[in-house]
């Protein structure tokens, strides 16, 4: 690693920065083995909105966990998506009678992992409500620049993560 970095290597950096918001916000908690930040006050009577992202461009998704926003955020390694196993564990441990929405930006690895976790969670019936994926694409990057992969969706994703308080059935949200 270059000598221009603050830390000599990347070992343990993701957990170090996830511990920061946990230390000052008593309503947040951390599952260290899965690199998951969750809202301890999340009510199962609400739709659970879950997001995820690679570490390295933080603070990002874990910064949106809390009242009226995300129920949970899973973090991957530096610039890598969380695995489908991590996301499946998050869904299993975030109860919701109304259903769960997995909010994803349009990155291939993220779409793949969240899609697999969604299918497995629905098949195993982890929750009373259904689990669905919402892929956020937006106009922040033109179609010509990202021709084959499409638009990425970061600004659109931030708006999607603000709907946690909605008490509508998941089926109504997805229609």
Helices and strands, with pairings:
Blueprint: H1 13-24, E1 28-31, E2 36-39, E3 48-55, E4 72-78, H2 84-92, E5 100-105, H3 108-124, E6 131-136, H4 154-160, H5 170-174
Parallel strand pairs: 3-4, 3-5, 5-6
Antiparallel strand pairs: 1-2, 2-4
Helix pairs in contact: 2-3
* CATH superfamily membership: Dihydroxyacetone kinase, domain 1
What is the SS-derived class? alpha/beta
Q: Could you tell me the strand content as a percent range?
A: 15-25%
Overall body shape: globular
Summary of the model, kept short:
The chain contains 5 helices and 6 strands. The chain is of the alpha/beta class and 175 residues long.
Features:
175 residues; Rossmann fold; 6-stranded mixed beta sheet; 5 helices; 6 strands; globular
Task: Describe what this molecule looks like in 3D.
- This protein has five helices and six strands.
- It is an alpha/beta fold and 175 residues long.
- It has one domain: Dihydroxyacetone kinase, domain 1 (Rossmann fold, 3-Layer(aba) Sandwich).
- Strands 1-2-4-3-5-6 form a six-stranded mixed sheet, sandwiched between helices.
- Helix 2 crosses helix 3.
- The longest helix has 17 residues.
- 35% of the residues are buried.
- The C terminus is likely disordered.
